[in-house]
Design goal:
about 120 residues, two-stranded antiparallel ribbon, 2 strands, extended
Length: about 120
């Protein structure tokens, strides 16, 4: 049986290296996590609130690729939810955005493949 160790850091500076650990149900509040790297992780149900993400990079997000040992061809990722986010000047490249809903958002300057969405909407395309 695995032993669960509880670690509390309060007003301390620490560099943490974690490999093959379970951090489910952990809470990080008022922390500086700049320049952090998370690789090959299950972040299902992750909640990020009130965070500055400037310069953040999200790559290869989704279900396991076919060459991964945990690959399940029938698995489907649950939808993501973004609310009150400042994503201006952000880029989405080679992403599956099928079925994405955009509502009550400022789309000024929004382009898809170099075409202004406002022009497409104006022209009824």
């Amino acid at each position: 049986m695995e032993t669960i160790k509880q670690i509390t850091l309060d007003s301390e500076c620490a560099v943490i290296t974690a490999h093959c650990v379970m951090l489910s149900d952990s809470t990080f509040n008022d922390v500086n996590m700049s320049n952090i790297s998370i690789v090959d992780a299950n972040l299902s149900d992750l909640k990020i609130e009130g965070a500055q993400l400037g310069g953040a990079v999200f790559q290869n997000i989704g279900m396991c690729p076919p060459d991964h040992p945990m690959y399940d061809p029938n698995a489907e990722q649950r939808p993501l939810f973004f609310e009150h986010c400042d994503l201006h000047k952000s880029r989405f490249v080679a992403c599956d955005l099928s079925g994405v809903e955009i509502s009550d958002c400022n789309i000024e300057g929004l382009t898809i493949n170099g075409k202004l969405i406002s022009d497409l909407l104006k022209n009824g395309i």
